[in-house]
Amino acid sequence: MKRATLLAVTLLCLSLWQQVIAGPDVSSYIRSQIDRMRSGDCVEIDDCPISSTILLPALYEKYGYQLIWKNADAVSQLVAAIEASYEDGLDPQDYHLDGIRRLQASQGAGGDSATRAELDLVLTDSLVRLGYHLQIGKVDPESLDSNWNMERTLELDPILKMSAAIDSAEVTNLVAAFRPQAAIYHDLKQALADYRRLQADGGWPAVPPGDSLKPGMNDPRVPAIRRRLAVTGDMPAVDLDSPEFDNAVEAGVRHFQQRHGLEADGIVGKGTLAELNVPVEARIDQLRVNLERARWVLHDLPEDFVLTDIAGFKVRYFRGGQPVWVTRAQVGMAYRKTPVFRDRIRYIEFNPTWTVPPTILRQDILPRVKKDPAYLEEKDLQVIDHNGKAVDAATIDWSRYPAAGFPYLLRQGPGPNNALGRMKFMFPNKHAVYLHDTPHRAGFGQARRAFSSGCIRIEDPFAFARLLLADKPDWDQARIDQVVESRKTTRVNLTEPLTVLLLYWTAEVDADQQVIFRSDIYDRDAEVLSALNGRFEFRDRPIIRQYRAGVI
Question: Does residue 381 fall inside a structural domain?
Answer without folding.
Answer: yes
